[in-house]
Amino acid sequence: MTTSTTQLDTKTIEIIKSTVPVLEQHGEAITKRFYEMMLGNHPELLNVFNHANQKQGRQPKALANTVYAAAKYIDNLGAIIPVVKQIAHKHRSLQIKAEQYPIVGKHLLLAIKDVLGDAATDEIIDAWGKAYGVIADVFIQVEKEMYEEAAAKKGGWDGFRKFSVDRKVKESDVITSFYLVPVDGEEISNFLPGQYISVRINMEGEEYTHIRQYSLSDQPGKDYYRISVKKETALADKPEGKVSNFLHDDVNEGDILEVTAPAGDFVLNMNETSPVVLISGGVGLTPMISMLNTINETQPERKVTFIHAAINGNTHAMHEHVQEIASQNDHVDYYVCYEKPTEEDRNAKRFDKEGYVDLAWIQSIVKENNASFYFCGPVPFMKTLNSALKEWGVPSENIHFEFFGPADQLN
After folding, report:
1. 136, 135, 134, 128: which is closest to 110 by C-alpha?
2. Per the count of CB atoms within 10 A, which of 146, 255, 297, 374 is most buried?
3. Catalytic annotation on 14?
4. CATH code reported for the domain at 161-259
5. Is residue 86 a known part of a binding site?
6. Fold (topology level) of 10-152
7. Is 68 assigned a catalytic role?
8. Is residue 196 marked as binding?
9. Structurally, what CATH architecture does the domain formed by 276-402 represent?
10. Any idea which positions bind NADP(+) (predicted)?
11. Cα 186 from Cα 183, distance rounded (Å)
12. 10-residue averages of pLDDT along the chain (411 residues)
């Protein structure tokens, strides 16, 4: 894949790079305004975008970070290909198409002009118009390859495919698993441990469809996909999870859901044999369970340390499953941290640490820092872990993490 910027003249590149400090300062204001203008003019795109992420500001922040990176590396777009691929996985899963990119470009330029006013000269707007064309071409090319790959895989498909809820299993007070089988009875494509699927929901009384991405919580090679969904209740800083509540309360065994083929670049490296440390917080355990089950099945000699943090035993899903794997396999160690354990948790000795996961505790469990670390959970949880592992001297190439929703920054 080429990432050439030869279409851009030296002056255009200089202008774009000169706007980097402005984007650092005003990026979120620009992208917030961008979404307001674009969705105002094209409300049909609300069938694709997560409304909650818009309201909470996560989507504008993620886009601002991407635009900033693109401007900073406009003369070397190859440097941001990992970011492009991560976003492209999400776009392919959401069924973002090439014909939507001109709409995005038009409104991004309008938002830059609207926020910066006279500071956004015709020269700057013209330069960004040219640069956006080059950046969009990179995304379109990467996504085209991903669409073709997903459709060409054995059992693969394009677009949304109908799946039936074969089983609905309550895993804890807040997490429920859904076992999904294809309505057409045909094969389903394999996936890599850690990947996710998109589920499209049509709710009665809702004008727009809702699409959410959920990690696959079992190992590949089954005749079903399993997702394990946390019921998101309303908090002071975020609304109730509309889709998660709908799945918990209104979707039953036998109901039909529309699903896209598995996607995502947060995946277990199956070519390595070095020790693995899987650390999860709350529902962040879903991709970790997939990784654990896969290692246990296909790499039974590979050392695994599974660390899970939850509020208490009532919210802790799949505890017995992981406990059983650990008790039957010498290569698997399992540790639990509860923030606020119940008396029942204490009496049953269900946990190993009270409070929060910290570096000192990790070091007492994992003696060497040369393992591969995978983690997923709430953003503050991941920021703490990322900082702790870096402090310990874990090489950056051994640190892997996944965001639920738009990517944030952990630094």
Report:
1. 128
2. 374
3. no
4. 2.40.30.10
5. no
6. Globin-like (1.10.490)
7. no
8. yes
9. 3-Layer(aba) Sandwich (3.40)
10. 282-287
11. 8
12. 62 93 90 92 87 61 82 88 90 93 94 94 94 92 96 97 98 97 97 97 91 96 97 76 94 98 96 95 97 96 97 97 97 97 96 97 94 95 95 96 63 54
